[in-house]
Design goal:
Largest sheet: 5 strands, antiparallel
Number of helices: 22
Number of strands: 26
Length: 612
């Protein structure tokens, strides 16, 4: 692909490793296990205590092979597709690789999916069997057994699926596994991941072994990224859904990059589990970092403690911004930052285990101010960018090349450019093969010369950093003809402690408005901090003091955009957006079209009824 380097405006970081035909995910895992069988790769939470128990590569591979033998004994053939429907866990990882060792394909289904949503994936992909976490999720899939063509078997993880399959496979010749692995080629199918579907029915993204290995192996050997994921002593916890490509990519990165990984199925235990596991880096979506900051702000209470926290929050932001200037932070600012570390920042880091130094954020923009706060307080958050179709990463900031607010330069071995209309285009061995059973969508996804059209708009600066400004389909065109990217306004507002979600509206309207939901978890502490009596969410959405606080946040946000792009009116909705009520996808993206449809009455409150 060196010919692309001659084009203008392309961000490209060369990759050292070329994936060759015999390479595959199970072949790589098998080789690593054989080379370093005594290396601890996983720490698993004990079911009997609060301790993390070490699992070596040899132990893990042995368990994988035992389950794979059980799958073979049950009749699983090379090329079969098996679903996994469970929270992120040791077992998710184990069964994922066991399926691959048996020559089959693991197809994720979000644990929040309904029977109807699961039916689409099972029928479209031709899934033969499924692993489910417990009896509740079995009940979701039970109506589909023998009703969807070819779907016959459900194994329940909580009902000792591992033990039963291990026993079943005890008589299988173990060499069959190696024969099946050796038959896999780099361009063969690795998995199908169904997109979250913010609009329309989810599409099945076909990813090959070459796609995922290209980003796994080149990331782990890149000089800048080694400091995060491959340095001695690196540890991470995985709590993002493994139904998403980002989590499965990171799982492979940890194994290949020599990190120790732990799994957190229940994010309600996230803080306590991080304190005991003590990760050195984590992967998360921006909402996690927003909640960490807002929780710290809320816990500061009121009066002197709150003023102290906010003072040193500003110090952290100013210190981080100064790092990007030729002269660097002044001596006075450096001293302030050191004092802030003793009074504020160290406490935040201790909440996350005390060893956390790096974080990688993806899925949505983090926000420049929040990025500077965390770097200034001793936790550098490296924003990255990618999609399911790009096997997770396409761009990323790293220790040797970072601009806060950007999504970084091209990931090793990836090419990025901007089309004439501002759309981000990408190319490389990490780009998906096709949409499963959907040639029309596949054709529409690529330019004539083979670049994948991401649907995101942005720019590439003179130093090859990529900046994302919004989704192409979400661009708002006001009645006055002004193009407005809602993401910048929404991202800034979500940083306020009271605000959970924001949907900016105004397409073909005279001005920009906003639909806002309140964070019910943060509301009680905010009321206490400001000396207000407790009140339920139903009362807070119309409370004058709450409305005034949201209005002030909007005015601050408006200072960053032109008057034509500024929010003039807003409405607070009666409830938050959740996965359960259908307004968030399982990867926590807002289903914008659904919100606009169901809350048309609220938009009417902003603009008045449509004239007939």
């Amino acid at each position: 692909m060196s010919e692309f380097l001659e084009e203008d405006g392309i961000s490209f970081t060369p990759g050292k490793i070329q994936v060759t035909e015999p390479m595959s995910v199970p072949a790589l895992l098998r080789r690593l296990g054989e080379e370093t069988p005594k290396r601890v790769i996983i720490e698993r939470k004990s079911t009997f205590s609060n301790q993390w128990v070490s699992v070596t590569f040899g132990q893990f591979i042995n368990e994988i092979r035992e389950v794979a033998c059980g799958l073979i004994a049950s009749g699983i053939k090379p090329g079969d597709k098996i679903a996994i429907m469970a929270h992120t866990s040791y077992e998710w990882s184990l069964f994922d690789f066991a399926i691959q060792f048996a020559g089959a394909h693991a197809i994720p289904i979000y644990e929040t999916s309904s029977t109807e949503q699961a039916k689409w994936i099972i029928s479209d992909a031709g899934i033969k069997a499924a692993f489910v976490e417990n009896s509740s999720l079995k009940a979701v899939l039970d109506p589909l057994v023998d009703k969807v063509k070819g779907f016959k078997t459900i194994w329940v993880i909580a009902d000792d699926a591992q033990g039963k399959l291990t026993k079943l496979g005890s008589g299988v010749d173990d060499s069959i596994i190696d024969t099946r692995i050796d038959a896999i080629r780099a361009d063969d199918l690795w998995t199908i991941i169904y997109t979250s579907g913010t609009t329309g029915r989810p599409k099945g993204v076909e990813l090959t072994h070459r796609n995922v290995l290209h980003v796994v192996m080149n990331g782990c050997t890149h000089s800048g990224l080694i400091k995060i994921i491959s340095i001695k002593g690196s540890r991470t916890v995985l709590f993002l859904p493994m139904a998403h490509v980002f989590a499965r990519f990171i799982n492979l990165v940890a194994f290949f990059g020599s990190s120790v990984i732990g799994y957190i199925p229940d994010t309600r235990n996230l803080v306590s589990d991080m304190q005991t596991f003590k990760p050195t880096f984590v992967l998360a979506v921006p909402r996690v970092f927003e909640k960490i900051y807002n929780a710290a702000d809320a816990k500061a209470g009121s009066g002197l403690k709150l003023r102290t926290f906010r003072k040193f929050a500003r110090v952290a932001i100013n210190y981080s911004r100064a790092l990007d200037t030729p002269e660097g932070p002044s001596k006075a600012l450096t001293l302030q930052r050191q004092l802030g570390d003793k009074l504020v920042y160290s406490t935040i880091r201790e909440l996350m285990g005390g060893r956390l130094k790096y974080a990688i954020s993806g899925g949505a923009p983090l926000g420049e101010r929040l990025g500077h706060f965390f770097r200034g307080s001793g936790l550098t958050v490296f924003e990255g960018y990618g999609l399911t179709e790009t096997s997770a990463p396409t761009t990323v900031n790293r220790p040797d090349k970072i601009k806060i607010g950007s999504v970084g330069a091209a990931y090793p071995g990836c090419y990025v450019k901007v089309d004439d209309d501002g759309e981000i285009l990408v190319k490389g061995d990490h780009i998906f093969k096709r949409y499963f059973n959907n040639p029309k969508a596949t054709e529409e996804a690529f330019t004539e010369d083979g670049w994948f059209k991401t649907g995101d708009i942005g720019r590439i600066d003179d130093e090859e950093y990529v900046w994302i400004t919004g989704r192409k389909k979400e661009l708002i065109v006001t009645a006055g003809g002004k193009n407005v990217a809602p993401a910048e306004l929404e991202d800034r507002l979500r940083g306020h402690p009271l605000i959970s979600q924001v949907v900016v509206v105004g397409d073909q309207k005279p001005f920009i408005g906003a639909l806002i939901t309140l964070d019910s978890d943060a509301l009680p502490q905010w009321l206490t901090n400001h000396g207000f009596d407790p009140m339920p969410l139903s009362q807070a959405i119309s409370d004058p003091q709450v409305l005034a606080a949201i209005d002030r946040a909007i005015k601050r946000t408006n200072t960053h955009v032109s008057r034509a792009e500024s929010i003039r009116k807003f409405v607070i909705l009666p409830s938050d957006f959740t996965i359960e009520n259908g307004y968030l996808t399982p990867s926590l993206k807002v289903r914008r079209n659904q919100v606009l449809q169901d809350f048309a009455y609220a938009i009417e409150d902003i603009y008045g009824p449509e004239k007939k």
